[in-house]
């Protein structure tokens, strides 16, 4: 929605030092249109000028209406008026989701022996405090003091300025198209844009503010509202200064209300907390990955963009744990090194370019574009996954985070972005998060979230060791004994050396021990020995680094629907009919069974073919309604059903059937066995329609409806 | 945990008039041990005397420790101290869950063309207010005024009385076993039971209270606490009177905090609200079913019983919509009519019996034991599903709800109960909920949650119709016009007849119209005509009835683990080793690949077999650790892996492999192709091990470890 160049023009002013918690970023929420070249600014339009699979102009409202009519999705609780940002998947959407998740499991979890876990969404506050979400996972919102309207501060500023710019254009006689993507907003009686001409300098100021709208903090947004006298059109009143709003849903756990809890905003934390057990399950072998597929929750201030920014959504996250030493190699990198990706790296973004060529991931890792093999391996695997489910390869790119867009601890981060009518949408994040997460939880809880590895060759360490004479030490310090002992144990090596010197020269040492006496404690040489000694280490202990591919399944599904959608002109001059060209592997249903009519003689064959397909593991649906064959096929083209079997009077006589291809509408005819074999090979991806067309006789047009005998 | 007879002894006092919301019932939470014959009372023990699959005494702590060690499940957030009632599934538990859900989809959703939807867990309060959950989905809790402890009132009464009875037994010199099922409770320093002898009459009073503990309301529990001077052992203070605690997690939606919301306590409501759209999706054809698989949430006051009573859990619910007229027939009932079920009906329960014989569902429906075919169909299908996933058929029964246990609108209700060491556990509820849910939502929202069916033969209806002279009516009543008109339209048929008489005799009628004048309105005959006329109806409108099979997936999984568990004595005199005899179809992993040793020559074969199995769609895992073959197999017996392939030096030479059966530990040996075919037939359920043993040569003992050449 905001096709502005953030980085080329504003790189110096970026505030995102903690992007994991910036509600804007995906691992927080969306960052719609993170990057567009400067030229794009002037073509700003809420519906991006994209084209369908067949190169037709893309019409979002038409697709959207079709998706709702076919119940791919529907606003939740619509009979109660609905709730913004909550959607239900209807039968085809739900089946599509199940198939994508199933493929995710096969492609990632089973293929790589990942350890899948199912962690709870309910999360105690303490965990999310440690992870940083309680403090940082927030957006800026401002409130209208008159009617209590709550608006996301950046959205508010953006809308006011856009509206003024539009008024300016109208005053200058430039034609402006109406936004059509948010029917709800239209219903609100927002004051119509006034056609007021602005100074050229003001226009430029506004455009510059819009260009860096993502980068203002609350105070700055408040200053902009004041400076440009922005008022809520609904009340004519200036909103109150922006305040931070944490995007997590909070809900106390248990009856006392004392245990603060949240719904998780991501599945990652549950995986990190199970690290030690998972390592144990994996028999202490490194590297390994865990995975979790489940719902996450973000209490968006004002959800827009349909299925792309919702309050409850399905995520699939992988946490791959790798030894930080040795360059983060991956033992299967060789298998993917020739996979070619569109990589939009930092330098290209800084140079204001977007046109990038595909490059083999092997080369990108070798030349340092991608930080390491493991990260590169996952980028390639993500690419292959998206390709497999039917994402348009020309609308996929991997965009590298800018240095100041990443968390300080992150080594590298790439987003798989998919191009849609909303712009480039981040659908998968793939970050090298270093040892951050395990470290903070270990520090907070004292749990050993580390790997202990037996060294092939023991190493000898020379160090200053301290021995206390416990028998005398306790009685000497009495109740402070443990505190003093702990302070002694905690003395760092460099200090020990100096103290050893003191002990030798003065016969005693003085150390700082908080809470004991005046904070200084003397220990005489009869109680303590400090010596340099050699120690042999057989194990090495380290906190693994985490490579985290994080998938927004709902976003991927929405993009998939845009990418596979096209229309075909009707023969009869009706409206263009919609088609969703899902690959068979993810299509909600694989085969439509249509009898030529409701004639009784077709019923046994329908049932027979249904059972046959089920026994092959191929999902099918019957449409024996009285609508014409054409209408029934049209309906299933909209549902994305790739294949159709027609049962006609000839089928009753000779047990042959026609098989129809959704995309070409071509038909072939053959006996049952041949048709079933063809279907199985198509559904399993062994063959494509062109193969079938070559092998089997083409069938032209269904016979007329003549009953048998 | 409370093996008491609720119905035989207390049927007259039952309070449950609205059991859907009674937190005790499953559709609310658990009803552990709903029914046991009176005799059982005296054998009360928290761990029921059950046996394993092989008839061995069942030892819950041993199984539990194995399940945690193998990470079937683990307490969530354990490194932060854990949260009661929240558990994560580790890799084998998660895979088991995925397989059970997958089978649920195949067995129910695909088999019956159900319309699966994925609705949000976040739910606006208004929806749950209408459904009754806001007012009724509660438990009684009481608070200790001294330390703030919150206890479930019935649990508190129960524990105090049990403790006193135990003290009495000790005083009488009867040996009492310690409860072992709740390690947490042990840690709390509850005052040890005092050995105080009670009067025989008091003992009887206590036992009678315990027998009907499920049936007291808050006030009655409060009276019991007062009467018997029950004090919290932790403080010695009597708790405050019980107050109702709603078990739903609440969380406001959106930034203003004005939209009250809850996490759904069941998935049903989302399905009901989509009824009209689903009917449309189904092309207006009845009957049909929707289904939803997803997490639900219940804020239990004090969760006990491990995985059986948790705060976040996976449900799978089916809402089958059926025409209430015509006896609720099911067109596939014929297919299941001979399935035999253990049916514990109302009468048997009232007679205090539990020993019931299997009866064919066809007979049970015919003789009226089960209310109708559709309900009977689903009971049989539930039975077949549980059988398929490996539930012990001798530990499964269907228990009918007592008349006063059901909601007033329910026609019939049966629970599939599974026997475990916690007693009989309700795992699937199957209720005929009549038209209740659709009716209340339609009434609240005005949405037409009805079916309109074209009548085969139009019917003629004779009725009293009213015509208003709109031209005069409006001006006459002015601002009250619409209100009066609505009141007239709403007049029922019997009233219309009388009014027609009045109009004829007096030239005017007087009707009640709330809010207009003094509430009485006169309408003269120049404004109104009331006549008996004939009307032809072409369509029939009705609210469908709902048959609702509701599955607690987590409970089923726990019971499955108890049912498939057994131990086998070790040869070497070690401890007995655990086995989970999951059927291959649900087993977390199907095949274990073990090389005889870590010798390099095995590696290519391991990889080859892994890939082969994957291409067959069979999940496998490799264990190439240095542990002995026996240890590695033991580990996988505990994980429930049904098959094992050993790769030894002979394999390297002649490409033959041994295949091991988990349950018998027998092995056969054959070439790759034969072994793979055998595995596929076992995993797909076409063959059982006995078949394979007959077909392939037995293999005795692995060779010693001699490298090739």
Automatic annotation (TrEMBL), chains A, B:
Catalyzes the ATP-dependent ligation of glycine to the 3'-end of its cognate tRNA, via the formation of an aminoacyl-adenylate intermediate (Gly-AMP). Also produces diadenosine tetraphosphate (Ap4A), a universal pleiotropic signaling molecule needed for cell regulation pathways, by direct condensation of 2 ATPs. Thereby, may play a special role in Ap4A homeostasis. It comes from Hyaloscypha bicolor E. Belongs to the class-II aminoacyl-tRNA synthetase family. Keywords: Aminoacyl-tRNA synthetase, ATP-binding, Cytoplasm, Ligase, Nucleotide-binding, Protein biosynthesis, Transferase. Homodimer. Its main location: cytoplasm. It comes from the Eukaryota. This is glycine--tRNA ligase. GO terms for molecular function: ATP binding; glycine-tRNA ligase activity; transferase activity.
């Amino acid at each position: 929605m905001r096709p502005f160049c953030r980085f080329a023009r504003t790189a110096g002013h970026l505030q995102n030092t903690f992007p994991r918690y910036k509600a804007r970023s995906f691992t927080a929420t969306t960052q719609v249109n993170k990057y567009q070249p400067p030229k794009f600014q002037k073509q700003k339009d809420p519906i991006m000028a994209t084209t369908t699979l067949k190169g037709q102009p893309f019409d979002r409202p038409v697709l959207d209406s079709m998706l709702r009519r076919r119940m791919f999705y529907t606003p939740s609780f619509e009979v109660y008026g609905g709730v913004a940002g909550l959607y239900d998947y209807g039968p085809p959407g739900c089946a599509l989701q199940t198939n994508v998740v199933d493929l995710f499991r096969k492609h990632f979890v089973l293929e790589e022996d990942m350890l899948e876990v199912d962690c709870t969404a309910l999360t105690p506050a303490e965990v999310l405090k440690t992870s940083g979400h309680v403090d940082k996972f927030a957006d800026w919102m401002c409130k209208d003091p008159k009617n209590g309207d709550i608006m996301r501060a950046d959205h508010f500023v953006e809308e006011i300025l856009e509206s003024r710019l539009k008024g300016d254009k109208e005053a200058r006689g430039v034609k402006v198209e109406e936004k059509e993507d948010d029917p709800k907003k239209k219903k609100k009686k927002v004051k119509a844009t006034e056609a007021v001409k602005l100074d050229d300098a003001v226009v430029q100021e506004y455009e510059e503010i819009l260009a860096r709208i993502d980068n203002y903090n609350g105070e700055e947004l408040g200053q902009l509202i004041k400076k440009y006298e922005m008022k809520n059109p609904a009340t004519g009143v200036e909103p109150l200064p922006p305040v931070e709003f944490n995007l997590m849903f909070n809900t106390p756990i248990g009856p006392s209300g004392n245990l603060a809890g949240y719904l998780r905003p991501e599945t990652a934390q549950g995986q990190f907390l199970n690290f030690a057990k998972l390592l144990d399950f994996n028999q202490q072998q490194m590297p390994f990955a865990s995975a979790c597929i489940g719902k996450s929750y973000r209490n968006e201030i004002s959800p827009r963009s349909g299925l792309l920014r919702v309050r409850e959504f399905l995520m699939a996250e992988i946490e791959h744990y790798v030894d930080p030493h040795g360059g983060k190699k991956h033992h299967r990198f060789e298998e993917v090194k020739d996979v070619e990706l569109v990589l939009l790296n930092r330098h290209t973004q800084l140079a204001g370019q977007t046109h990038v060529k595909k490059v083999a991931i092997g080369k990108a890792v070798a030349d340092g574009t991608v930080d390491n093999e493991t990260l590169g391996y996952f980028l390639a695997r993500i690419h292959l996954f998206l390709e497999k489910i039917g994402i348009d390869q020309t609308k996929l790119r991997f965009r590298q985070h800018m240095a100041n867009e990443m968390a300080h601890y992150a080594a590298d981060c790439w987003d798989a972005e998919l191009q849609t009518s909303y712009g480039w949408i981040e659908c998968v994040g793939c970050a090298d998060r270093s040892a951050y997460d395990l470290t903070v939880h270990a520090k907070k809880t004292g749990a050993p979230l580390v790997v202990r590895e037996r060294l092939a060759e023991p190493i000898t360490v020379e160090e200053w060791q301290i021995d206390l004479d416990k028998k005398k030490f306790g009685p000497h310090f009495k109740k402070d004994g443990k505190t003093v002992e702990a302070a002694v144990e905690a003395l760092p090596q460099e200090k020990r050396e100096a103290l050893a010197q003191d002990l030798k020269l003065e016969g005693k040492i003085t150390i700082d021990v908080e809470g004991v006496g005046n904070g200084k404690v003397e220990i005489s040489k009869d109680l303590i020995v400090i010596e340099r000694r050699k120690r042999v280490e057989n194990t090495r202990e380290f906190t693994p680094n985490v490579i985290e591919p994080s998938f927004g399944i709902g976003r991927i599904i929405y993009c998939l629907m845009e990418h596979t959608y096209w229309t075909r002109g009707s023969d009869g001059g009706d409206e263009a009919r919609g088609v969703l060209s899902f690959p068979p592997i993810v299509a909600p249903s694989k085969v439509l069974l249509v009898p030529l009519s409701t004639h009784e003689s077709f019923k046994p064959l329908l049932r027979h073919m249904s059972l046959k397909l089920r026994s092959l593991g191929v999902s099918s649906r019957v449409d024996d309604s009285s609508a014409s064959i054409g209408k029934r096929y049209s309906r299933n083209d909209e549902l994305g059903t790739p294949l159709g079997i027609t049962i006609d009077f000839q089928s009753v006589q000779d047990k042959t059937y026609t098989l129809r291809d959704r995309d070409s509408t071509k038909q072939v005819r053959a006996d049952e066995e041949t048709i079933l074999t063809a279907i199985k090979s198509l559904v399993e991806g062994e063959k494509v329609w062109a193969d079938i067309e070559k092998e089997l006789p083409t069938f032209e047009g269904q016979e007329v409806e003549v009953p048998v005998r």
